[in-house]
Amino acid sequence: VIGAAAIMIAAATAFQGTALAGQFVNAQTVAQGLARHISSAVGAIFAVLLIDASVIGASAVTLATSYAFGDVFGIRHSLHRSWREAKLFYGVFTVVVVVAAAIVLIPSAPLGLITTAVQALAGTLLPSASLFLLLLCNDPAVLGPWVNKPWLNVLATVILAILVMLSLILVFSTIFSGVSVTLLLIVFGGMLVAGLIGIGIVTRGSLAPAVSERAKEERFTWRMPPIALLTRPVPSRGRRIGMTAMGAYIAVAVLLLLVKAIELGFGH
Question: Which of the 8 DSSP states describes residue 208?
Fold first, then answer.
């Protein structure tokens, strides 16, 4: 976060009042612009940081995808296993890396547009991942005595609502580049407050899962049962409302982002 903030501050300072302000093309133009308007050393540092971030991102994202694939399909997935023991795991990892590299190496590919679209998509999907995490933290079959306390659920709900608001602002500012972010913040901020009040009224008393009192010693001996033995939780009213609203938002937002990306890709 600190590194990203430093890069944005440096870029904003360097490009303010120039033709490059607000005209992101790709990372190469940013590095060249920093070298031209600040110093060649700053441009070189940005390029090195970009390489470092690319290596970390390529490793983390591809490995996470491979692990998720293994979890979903029940195959062996771990780096401590050999190629013969986990062929599909390493195969998925290799395919994802090759596909990503192939996209980057496409001649005249709009890398800036691809980067912006991917970041907007990631920001759109972040609230849904946080929602599933919140549901998981309230499942006594999974966490037993470690499930969220009521005050943690309230805090998590507020954080999730803020993430949804920021995601909405990101989507709208990406699709409608001329819209005022300040105006969006005011509008969605009001909707956020109203939504939190509504959620509090509808789901009061259901944020905390019904879990029996357990001895403190049990917290240190608790082990999650195998996934195959877990039963599907019965969705509460608040859970159904949240999942339905989140699913509808993601579907609409992803569709709009795809349409916008295609329009920009074809120069419209």
Answer: S
CA atoms within 13 A on the CB side of 173: 19
Burial class for 34, CB neighbours closer than 10 Å (0-12, 13-18, 19+)? buried
Q: Check residue 208 and give left, alpha or beta (phi > 0: left; psi -120 to 50: alpha).
A: beta
Phi-psi region of 17 (alpha: psi -120 to 50; beta: other; left: phi over 0): left
**Are 37 and 16 a contacting pair, CB within 8 Å?**
no
For 113-136, the pLDDT digits (tens) are 888 788 888 888 888 888 888 888
> The pTM is what?
0.68
- The ranges of the chain with pLDDT < 50 are 208-211
Residue boundaries of the structural domains of the chain = 1-109, 110-268
Q: What is the pLDDT of residue 234?
A: 78
Per the structure block, which two tokens stand in for 19?
Answer: 């033709």
Element (H, E) at 194: helix 181-202
Q: List Cβ neighbours of 239 (8 Å cut-off, separation of 6 or more).
A: 135
Q: How far apart are the two ends of the chain, measured CA to CA in Å? A: 33
